Amino acid sequence: MNRLAIGLVAITLVGCAEVQFTDNIDLILDFGITQRDVLSSPYVRGAPVSVSIDRRRNVNDWQLQSEDPNIFGFANFTTLSDGDRALKITGWGQALEVGEATLAAIDSRGRTRDSVTIEVATPTHATLASAARLFGGETADEADVDELLILAGGTATFQVRYFDDERQLFGNAVLDADPSESLEADPRETFLFEQREWLSLTPDTVGIHTVDLYADGEDLGQWEVEAVDESAIAEITLAFEEQEIEDHWITVVAEAWTADGRRIYGVDVEWDREGVTEFGEGDLYRYRYTEGPSASLCARIGDVTSDAVQIHGNGYVDSSNNIGCSSAGFGGLWLGPLALLAVRRRETSS
Fold first, then answer.
1. What is the pTM of this model?
2. Secondary structure element (H or E) that encloses residue 85, with its range
3. Domain 19-121, CATH 3.40.50 — does that match?
4. Which of 150, 225, 281, 349 is 20 to 30 A from 294 via CA?
């Protein structure tokens, strides 16, 4: 190889991006650490977002800066270290105004080593996806609801997603809800491994209710909530997909239906396994698959009982209103992965 070719190779290598930008947006609902190697822009205005930079080598004395802090600004920073090596710098920021902002990785000599452009936008509308159907394995698109038919006195929880026309906007902690009389509407968030926005709805009385939704003050329109009593439940079905993987957790979802085939949300049922009533009520039954003889499982509410299904393993009754590590009550499942965090690495404020 001649000197000119060697020089071109060197220039190419130097010019290659060596910095990886990531954020805390996790698009896979598995209550584990599923980090993408790209940023999840565009962000919904008002959302807190953490952005991190790392590289194959250390980032000692590096900085993460926003060149447009009025659009996307950082409040503080932390550094993940291993001994005297800085492995990752995380900036705790917020999407403040509509527009584009450049985020830059600055090395110890003040040079910009890499940069990315992110966008902040306001949503035109929101969608609601059934938490029960999400936990049963459906995607958010599959679990989106067209109507809100909820059992009076029951609570139903939905994941809220924001869109600017056809584009999905990412981020949470921006939801406000204004319900009509006799309807409780509680915006909720999950944090740690799953950054999600949720809305729990509880109609106190039978009839038509409404809830107006807002994202960082932006009007997202009004949703109608129809509440029915228990006599409207004509059928209970059980939805699940058993995978023959030893120790794999499987979720059975109890679905309530009207006589004309409309799905009723917010219905907690009793569960019978092999003719014995399980402890507690809820719309989910979670069990760990084990090889061996099967057991019958059915759900009931009042005089309505589902057909029995066969499962392999023992489990417990749960509710789709238990959405994990939440800042607004109901309490958290899926805390186990915390124990997997590496103790050798420490995070120190810079």
1. 0.86
2. strand 85-95
3. no
4. 281
